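Progress report, Aim 2. The chain analyzed during this reporting quarter is listed below.
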Amino acid sequence: MDANKKIDTVSGSPFESLSIEEMTKIQGSGSQNMMTVSPVATPIASFQASEYISHKINKFLHRN
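Predicted structure tokens for the chain:
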């Protein structure tokens, strides 16, 4: 490690002293929402898709 580096020194101005425009540039405007799926919804959707496909395959294989 370089002896000239000051690892305990804060660089830049405190966040509270920045303008709204500067804060927005740093943290974003908050206009984007995170897209999430319930941990339960994914397995349920997967199961339903599997059941649907199995039904279609069985119907095709056992047609008269």
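DSSP finds two helices and no strands in the chain. Residues 41-61 form the longest helix (21 residues). These observations will guide the mutagenesis work planned for the next reporting period.
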